[in-house]
Structure to design on (266 residues):
């Protein structure tokens, strides 16, 4: 038995107690515009309410998992930055962060299946999952510094558990691309495989044989055992990003990335 809830940008299919979620903006390399942020948030809320689900498998349609933020689309209206970063309480997740930490906050295991480009916001989303499966030709990048920004979508919460501090800082500061094999060596990726969705489905069937209460408790326990102060990281991400966003160097970085200036940073 299967159920389909089709949002044009984030499709949800429920089959045999497994939720398959597909990012669906392939013509734009699944780059994140405002509508996509809201669509992902809605799907996460829908999954959270369904107590019959046992596993979530997140993947993407098209040639790439997600190439990051659709800068031109999002920044057409300055109010969008406010919508992405606004939160009622510092330690809560804002709209930009919920598309990453929202997967982490689900009680059920979440497997993300990556192929092609997984850059910027795409990697932030993937880091919210409990397991990352990818193809051998997948590429990754913590890309935000190219635009004079910091990674502020909640992926830092998971990155601290996976990657040594010096490696994490180097990846974020340089915004360099790195391969699937490098991602595996860094500890970001769980497994490299030819068909990540097929592998994830097999893993999900294994997990379905276990008590959902045990799996939910293991997830909660291990997240608390590794690190328990997620709220302080979410607050710091947002505070620092606001400071950067309102500064002159962020504007210069955008112009440099677009090839419109040779102006020095101030």
């Amino acid at each position: 038995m299967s159920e389909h809830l089709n949002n044009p940008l984030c499709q949800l299919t429920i089959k045999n107690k497994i939720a398959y979620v597909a990012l669906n903006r392939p013509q734009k390399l699944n780059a994140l515009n405002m509508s996509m942020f809201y669509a992902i948030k809605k799907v996460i809320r829908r999954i959270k309410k369904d107590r019959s689900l046992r596993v979530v498998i997140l993947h993407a349609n098209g040639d790439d998992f997600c190439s990051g933020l659709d800068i031109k689309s999002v920044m057409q209206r300055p109010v969008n930055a406010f919508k992405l970063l606004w939160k009622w309480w510092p330690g809560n997740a804002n709209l930009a962060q919920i598309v990453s930490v929202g997967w982490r906050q689900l009680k059920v295991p979440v497997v993300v299946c990556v192929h092609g480009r997984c850059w910027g916001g795409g990697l932030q989303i993937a880091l919210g999952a409990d397991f990352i499966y990818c193809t051998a030709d997948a590429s990754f990048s913590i890309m935000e510094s190219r635009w004079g920004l910091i990674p502020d979508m909640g992926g830092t919460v998971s990155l601290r558990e996976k990657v040594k501090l010096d490696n994490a800082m180097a990846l974020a500061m340089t915004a360099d691309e790195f391969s699937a094999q490098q991602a595996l060596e860094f500890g970001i990726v769980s497994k490299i495989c030819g068909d990540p969705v097929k592998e994830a489905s097999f893993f999900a069937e294994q997990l379905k044989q276990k008590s959902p209460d045990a799996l939910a408790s293991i997830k909660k326990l291990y997240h608390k055992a590794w690190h328990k102060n997620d709220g302080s990281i979410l607050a710091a991400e947002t505070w620092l990003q606001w400071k950067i966003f309102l500064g002159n160097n962020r504007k210069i970085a955008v112009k440099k990335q677009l090839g419109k200036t040779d102006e020095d940073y101030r």
Notes: The beta strands are 2-6, 10-15, 18-23, 55-60, 110-114, 117-119, 131-134, 139-141, 178-179, 191-192. The chain has a mean pLDDT of 89. The first helix runs from residue 34 to 49.
